[in-house]
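agent> Task received from the user: take the single chain below, predict its 3D structure, and emit structure tokens. No templates, no multimer pairing.
agent> Plan: (1) validate residues, (2) run structure prediction, (3) serialize to tokens, (4) report one or two observations.
agent> Step 1 OK, no nonstandard residues flagged.
tool_call: predict_structure(input=
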Amino acid sequence: MELSNFYRVLAPRTTVIVTTVNQKGDINAAPFSFTMPVSVDPPLVAVASVPTHHTYHNIQETGEFVVNVPGEEILDQLWVTAGSFPEDVNELEKAHLTAKKSEIVKAPGIEECLAQIECKVHSDEKCGDHQLVVGEVVNVSLRKDALKDDLLDVEKMKPVLHLGGKNFVVGDHRQQVE
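)
tool_result: status=success, residues=178
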């Protein structure tokens, strides 16, 4: 295996859709699997973004973003948000997903997702070919039926995990998006 593919053995990885807005209010949405919680106190979550992407530019402009946790039922729509669209194109509209007003940040969440984690930038550091953006969690919204014994009910919610490319794991099986 080539060293540049090392991350493929750290799979499957939790897949999220990060939503942002720019200063004009244009909504952007993009899938991420380079993401993780990094602290409980204070609550921090990190996403690694390619620095040339609209998502990262919007985070730099506004200092805010939302981490949305998708389930199996929107896997195909998740993949639509991965498309290369002009800055003023709303990926949520292209994917037929619904913007959900956030409680604290300006960026919307995604109504069809299992959870929405609103964040304000805590730190931002260049890490190789990505920018590691750490967000302080300022609010969490989730579906009423998303938890079982205070944990994500994975059997019922079927979160999406990324293997690589168009390959995902949902529940106990692989699934490829078109």
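agent> Step 4: summary for the user.
The longest strand covers residues 115-127.
agent> Done.
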